[in-house]
Amino acid sequence: MAENVPLTKPSRKLHLKPKNTIVQTISITPIPLLMTSVALLMTAGLVYKTYDDCKQDLAQNITRTINKYEKEVAKWKNLYEGESQKVSTMKRELAACKQQGESASKRDMGKEEALHMHLEREAQRKREEENKIFPLKKN
Fold it and tell me: Which regions are flagged for Basic and acidic residues bias (predicted)?
């Protein structure tokens, strides 16, 4: 039957002689080759699908990471701006306090000088009264 077919051909042909003596040729595709090619195609598709999924996952991870860090940067930027506003407000308040303190110290100095002068006048007046009551004897 299969004696006429050389073994090196990719497909084998079987010659069957039915009862009506018509020679029929049946082409048999080698099953292992078909299975291997199907398996390779499936593997290639799976690899491409996996590669595509990995690429999409990586893009999503990168996008998530970028968004996360953008949020962190915005948070720190807002915090910094808030703190810098607080610092500038504190500087203004400190300058106002310094100015008030200087004017207050001048005012206090004026009060101290006025008190000192008042006390000196009182002391002078008392001395004059004592001199009137107990005049010093001049030699």
Answer: 104-132
Confidence band, pLDDT 50/70/90 cuts, at residue 1: very low
CA distance linking residue 114 with residue 119, whole number of Å: 9
Give the bridge partners for 15, in sequence order.
25
CA nearest to 126, candidates 114, 115, 118: 118
Lookup: tokens for 78: 């807002």
The two three-digit tokens of residue 114, written as one number: 């006025």
Q: Where do the DSSP E strands lie in 1-138?
A: 12-16, 24-28
For residue 139, what pLDDT is reported?
46
Torsion angle of C-alpha atoms 37, 42, 46, 48, degrees rounded to 10: 50
In angstroms, the CA 70 to CA 67 distance is 5
d(CA 103, CA 117): 21
Region of 21 (left: φ > 0; alpha: ψ -120 to 50; beta: rest) is left
Q: Is the pLDDT of residue 75 over 70?
A: yes
